[in-house]
Amino acid sequence: MLDYDLHCHSNISDGTLTPTELVNRAAERGVKVMALTDHDDMDGLDEARAAAAQHSMTFINGVEVSVSWRTHTLHIVGLNIAPAYPPLVEGLRSVRSGRGERARKMSDALAKAGIGGVLEGAYHYAGNPNMIGRTHFARYLVEAGHCKDVKSVFNRYLVKGKPGYVPHQWAVLADAISWIRGSGGVAVLAHPGRYMTGRDGMGKKTMQELLTEFVELGGQALEVVTGSHTPEQYAEFARYAEEFNLLASCGSDFHGPSESYRDMGRLPDFPLGCRPVWEAWEAAVKVA
Ligand code: AMP
Ligand code: MN
Ligand code: MN
Ligand code: MN
Question: Quick check: pTM over 0.90?
Answer without folding.
Answer: yes
